[in-house]
Known about the structure:
The structure holds two protein chains of two kinds.
Chain A: E1 3-5, H1 6-20, E2 24-28, H2 44-48, E3 53-55, H3 60-73, E4 76-80, H4 91-98, H5 101-104, E5 114-119, E6 144-146, H6 151-163, E7 168-173, E8 181-183, E9 197-200, E10 205-209, H7 214-228, E11 232-236, E12 239-241, H8 245-255, E13 258-265, H9 270-282, E14 291-295, H10 305-308, H11 313-324
Helix pairs in contact in A: 1-6, 3-4, 7-11
Chain B: H1 26-29, E1 31-32, H2 52-77, H3 91-98, E2 106-108, H4 114-119, H5 124-131, E3 155-156, H6 166-178, E4 185-190, H7 197-209, E5 213-219, E6 222-223, E7 226-227, H8 228-231, H9 240-244, E8 247-252, H10 256-273, E9 276-281, H11 300-306, H12 311-321, H13 327-349, H14 369-382
Parallel strand pairs in B: 1-8, 2-3, 2-4, 4-5, 5-9, 8-9
Antiparallel strand pairs in B: 6-7
Amino acid sequence: xxxxxxxxxxxxxxxxxxxxxxxxxxxxxxxxxxxxxxxxxxxxxxxxxxxxxxxxxxxxxxxxxxxxxxxxxxxxxxxxxxxxxxxxxxxxxxxxxxxxxxxxxxxxxxxxxxxxxxxxxxxxxxxxxxxxxxxxxxxxxxxxxxxxxxxxxxxxxxxxxxxxxxxxxxxxxxxxxxxxxxxxxxxxxxxxxxxxxxxxxxxxxxxxxxxxxxxxxxxxxxxxxxxxxxxxxxxxxxxxxxxxxxxxxxxxxxxxxxxxxxxxxxxxxxxxxxxxxxxxxxxxxxxxxxxxxxxxxxxxxxxxxxxxxxxxxxxxxxxxxxxxxxxx
Amino acid sequence: xxxxxxxxxxxxxxxxxxxxxxxxxxxxxxxxxxxxxxxxxxxxxxxxxxxxxxxxxxxxxxxxxxxxxxxxxxxxxxxxxxxxxxxxxxxxxxxxxxxxxxxxxxxxxxxxxxxxxxxxxxxxxxxxxxxxxxxxxxxxxxxxxxxxxxxxxxxxxxxxxxxxxxxxxxxxxxxxxxxxxxxxxxxxxxxxxxxxxxxxxxxxxxxxxxxxxxxxxxxxxxxxxxxxxxxxxxxxxxxxxxxxxxxxxxxxxxxxxxxxxxxxxxxxxxxxxxxxxxxxxxxxxxxxxxxxxxxxxxxxxxxxxxxxxxxxxxxxxxxxxxxxxxxxxxxxxxxxxxxxxxxxxxxxxxxxxxxxxxxxxxxxxxxxxxxxxxxxxxxxxxxxxx
Lengths: 328, 386
């Protein structure tokens, strides 16, 4: 198996789909000749031609809206938004057109398309280049949301997203693009959408997380086990819509304690929904209040955001300790 | 201080005194015509090569569409239809444009374009089932009355935010080009849509990627209460195409023959040149919707200036000059339209409403467990009443 970065895995998955399905096209700002500003699509235009790997005008709304038309006609577009911080201009088209066409046409039309949203902080990108926008897209059905955080997931989720019959938002982990590599099985197989990964088993506390910081959470959990004997079960949700309720509940029933960690803002963030569902379905199992660790409801700070806006290792550790040591 | 009058319609403001229909100044304003007010050839555009049968079908459809509007209005006012978007005065543009395309071509229609579906073979009862929100119309009662379409007829339903579907249509046409299909595309939208970012996106991409599409900007003078000179300071909507490298022209939107001629030409040119933007200059004779009150913002004189340019009357006079139509047939046609509409209303009103739990269908190809759970909760709370 080749050792690939997250970036190379995304590239390999797109190349695989472009090669095996003539209806797949990739479009976005600078994705063609330049191979994307991160080089995610490097070499793809040279290989598949400029009619299928398309440099577009600088217009996020236009990219997504034209991809919708392509999907209505029978193509399977992969539309890249250069940074998720620029996705909001396309919000109406993602949520009220792509995610609604099947329903609003009585099932006559559908919009099978992928919207790639390079996301998350940690690259000294400031407000517009560090955003975690996923919660905006959770509010109503019609679109699936996947968050790969390993090279294999980046590969398998991209393939799953391209082949899904409905629109999929692929929330890509920018800070991991080149920072993380691993052996990847290039089997051309999609991962199953809606399944979480248990990164670390434990009986004391369930930590639910997703995105790049899932690696910090797992590391901190290992340290706490060694130092304090707290055995945390760490779950990478991987898929936000739909999410793996069975995996979550079976863990919560076992541990009775829950910490939710994400780097999007706190209020009405994804953790709010998880907390509500868990108390609804597993109230009798809980020993402590569900705790959320998230970014504050403020903009992403340029010079100190990477250290203090995102949940740091120290704060993750403190959150798990607080839950473990909670007294009524 | 009174606003300087201008803008693409040339009529509009309530305080205006001498109102002249821009169609009376067509040559000066660059508005292309085949026939004049009396249905006589102007000598501008050549008379299109349409046979008697097609011309009569077009005329009869325009009359049927007007009859639908009259009846739809009374249905709304009597509480039987929840909402109505009138289309009186706008019969020429969408019907003539529709017959300029083949059945394999795709049309993105707006909400004032019922004739597009009917000309493509939708039965009248299907339209009324949609107006009544019935279960068995193509969109299962989910959309506001008049927001129609039908995939079986290659007519894509508009997304409701006006103009939002301009880039969708452009993207679909681009897809056909990528797939090397010969499908051509028509997208119809209003003057207000041209102010949205999607108009810019669609025109800009169309100029760059040259998809086989005809955009018709149906300039009916008003976006709800907003006249065209508040919508834009451009002298015309057509000329906006210049900025994008998109071929453009203005046509008399109340001259069905001219609309047909320029649309057909644009369709034929599409594989070679890509998009065309046609500004069809017409007038919304009715309210914006059943929730509107135009007395608040426009004068009766403004509407009256357009009355002599009625698209139905002009086409009928043309047909009479050609010996294709006689006044005696007029009453029979109207009666037939009214009878067909009455029968369609009775059939559609008897159709069932959607079941409550059907609102969960078609959200995804396969419902998520989350939606299944919400559906079950609704059914539980309804106690089997669904």
